[in-house]
Amino acid sequence: MATETVGSVTFRVGARDPTAVECSTASCEVSSALSDPAIATGTVLLAVAALVTFVYISEARTQLREERRRIVDERDALEEFIDRTQGLTPHEADEFSTGGNAAASGGAIPLARHGTGPPRPPDDLRDRVCSQYRETVMSVPHYTEEYDDTLAESLSEELGPDVTTALLAEERVSAPLHATIVSRSRGAQMAREELLSAVDAELSEIDDVEARLERIDRTRRNLRSHLEDGNAKPTFEACQDVWGTLGDLEEACGTLAADRQETLRDPPYVPDDEQPSFHEYLYGTLEETAHPVLSAIAELTDRIRTDRRRVLERLASTG
């Protein structure tokens, strides 16, 4: 179970309540503050005047947009490969072993017959299919950086080992094999469409979370300004109101964290068992955190808790 820690705030992925249990009334907090030797008795300004810059979310958005571009490139390359391959004409069925369209339904792919009838010269269809695959699927801008697979390795990943063996081992391409290549390629393209939809959903979610965090942080800043306005020392009641509103902001952050944890438990895309989870796939290469949204929430929560502690100093000095 993954854990994200920023400052003094810890969120555990999968936990139902990501915020710590705290004293719920001003009086018990003031009592604690008055007995804490670390609390100064003078007036202390609230922490951090500037709006929080949500760097974690910014980095996540950059990562998502780059990944989205790559998925679109791969989807479009597969579409072009399908269009080109569909335009090729395979050999007639009587030149190949029987078995119908077994390959398209998951069975064995019929290969060219050997040792029956007069020998037939090899055609160039296999070479054309392979050439078109290299020119499309293997020519996306990020191919070398991301995969750097050989032709056989790439075909095996996208179309399956059986198709790869049939295509590369035989001199001629049967009609069933041709149909299977098109069908499997279309399946790979649809998988990119599903992944693209999930990435778009993730982009939408982090935009929404960032907007909500910005509203919370703007309120936090306004509360700070409220205590600093004018030359008069803030009253106990004013400090108590600010302290309570900051508590509401912390609770709002906790709600955001709980919502995000639900998304982590039920992602919009579920890869194969042997693949990393959707969010690991998206953020596993980030240097600072594998859970940027939770980290951004934790960062703001830590700021709010710091502000609440400093409001208690004012409460202690005005009470």
Give me the secondary-structure topology.
Layout: E1 3-6, E2 9-12, H1 26-35, H2 55-86, H3 125-135, H4 143-146, H5 151-159, H6 161-169, H7 175-228, H8 236-265, H9 278-283, H10 292-318
Antiparallel strand pairs: 1-2
Coiled coil: 57-84, 192-226
Domain DUF7260: 56-308
Keywords: Coiled coil, Membrane, Transmembrane, Transmembrane helix
Explain what you see:
By secondary structure, the chain is mostly helical. The protein folds into 2 domains: 3-67 and 196-318; 68-194, no CATH class. It contains 10 helices and 2 strands; from the N terminus they run ββαααααααααα. It has helices at residues 26-35, 55-86, 125-135, 143-146, 151-159, 161-169, 175-228, 236-265, 278-283, 292-318, and strands at 3-6, 9-12. Strands 1-2 form a two-stranded antiparallel sheet. The protein is rod-shaped and about 90 Å long. Residues 57-84, 192-226 form a coiled coil. InterPro entries: DUF7260. Residues 56-308 form the DUF7260 domain. Pfam families: DUF7260. Keywords: Coiled coil, Membrane, Transmembrane, Transmembrane helix.
Short note summarizing the structure:
The chain is mainly α and 319 residues long. It has helices spanning 26-35, 55-86, 125-135, 143-146, 151-159, 161-169, 175-228, 236-265, 278-283, 292-318, and strands at 3-6, 9-12.
